[in-house]
Amino acid sequence: MEIKKVCVVGAGLMGSGIAQVCAEAGYDVTLRDIEKSFIDGGMTRIRHNIARAVTKGTKGQDEADAILGRLRTTLDLREAAGDADIVIEAIVEVMEVKRKLFTELEVLVSDHCLFFTNTSGLSITEIAAATERPDRFIGTHFFNPVPVMRLIEIIRGHATSDETLEAAQAWGTSLGKEIIVVNEAPGFAVNRLLCTMLNEAFRALGEGIATAGDIDKGMVLGCNHPIGPLSLSDLIGLDTLLHVMEGLHRELGDAYMPAPLLKQLVRAGHFGRKTGRGVFDYD
Predict the structure, then answer these.
(1) What is the pLDDT of residue 89?
(2) What is the pLDDT of residues 9-43, one digit of tens each?
(3) Catalytic residue status for 153
(4) How many CB atoms lie under 10 A from the CB of residue 168?
(5) What is the reported pLDDT for 93?
(6) Angle made by CA atoms 186, 172, 240, in degrees to the nearest 5
(7) Which pLDDT score is estimated for 240?
(8) Angstrom distance (rounded) from CA 129 to CA 161
(9) How much is the pTM?
(10) Angle, in degrees to the nearest 10, between helices 238-252 and 229-236
(11) What is the dihedral of CA 51, 57, 62, 66, to 10 degrees?
(12) Could you say which DSSP state residue 258 is in?
């Protein structure tokens, strides 16, 4: 199928990033959220990113204006999704909230519209089961920051058709991203490995094996990682990391139990960079 119009639901960090790269790739994009302040925040991030690219000389002003011209915003779900070829959901990582959204979307979109859910670990099959089009439903896992990170993990649900997978791969490639395809499993591929390592860093810190700075330095200098696991956790969001680990724990057993220190920091409201404090203090 030919994809021309894209609806992104959710104007947060991930949703605004997805909207930006879609507009940069030439798609007409509608960005929708439930409050104007959320949309304003998302558009502020997009304008900042594009202005920075102009300043660096990687984009011309005409190109920047054209990208912004392909973006429109709305609070109205029908207006956003009614004529979309694909709807990409990038809202809160809560199963029932995602399922409810797709139930609402089902009666608003065209028969050919594909549904994409952007998630770091929730079951694609379970979300798709809330709709009458599980064959046209697929998962995407973008990485933060979306305009910079090159990878999209595309996840097949139980009923995802070959045609939907092919369309998702072609669309992802058109964004200038590299694609890996994963059959649904707890944590998919990347987070199954990555989040387990990050969780172990919290165990090491909680057990007093080394300081936070030395744990990060050890992995950067000893393993050639671009960023230490605790700094990366703060960037991802400790609440998001905990959600993924709780899912892995439920599905795969006690080997994936969240570290006590990780749970404690989340309970304290220290989610990382987005709250100004996580493992490290950003104030």
Answers:
(1) 98
(2) 999 999 999 999 999 999 999 999 999 999 999 99
(3) yes
(4) 24
(5) 87
(6) 35
(7) 87
(8) 14
(9) 0.89
(10) 100
(11) -60
(12) P
Q: Which entry of 89, 93, 153, 233 is annotated as an active-site residue?
A: 153
Contact 18, 146 (CB under 8 A): yes
Going from N- to C-terminal start, the domains of the chain cover: 5-183, 190-275
Which of 49, 118, 123, 191 is an active site residue? 191
Query: In the beta sheet, which residues pair with residue 9?
Result: 32, 89
Indicate if 191 belongs to the active site.
yes
110 is catalytic: no
Q: List C-alpha distances in Å: 280 to 6, 141, 209, 234.
A: 37, 26, 17, 8
Architecture of domain 190-275: Orthogonal Bundle (1.10)
pLDDT under 50: residue ranges of the chain: none
Catalytic residue among 123, 141, 199, 233: 141
20, two tokens: 């930006």
DSSP letter at 208? T
Tell me which of 120, 123, 199, 231 is the catalytic residue. Answer: 120
Residues 38 and 121: their CA atoms lie apart, in Å, by 24
Is residue 93 annotated as a catalytic residue, yes or no? no
CATH code for residues 5-183 = 3.40.50.720
What kind and span of H or E run contains 194?
helix 190-206
Same fold, 5-183 and 190-275: no
3-state secondary structure of 83: coil
Which amino acid type is present at position 142? F
Over residues 195-218, the pLDDT tens digits come to 999 999 999 999 999 999 999 999
Beta carbons within 8 Å of 263's beta carbon, 6+ residues apart: 242
Coil/strand/helix, residue 31: strand
Longest dimension (CA), the chain: 56
In a 13 Å sphere around the CA of 212, the CA atoms on its Cβ side amount to: 13
Question: 171: part of which helix (H) or strand (E)?
Answer: helix 162-174
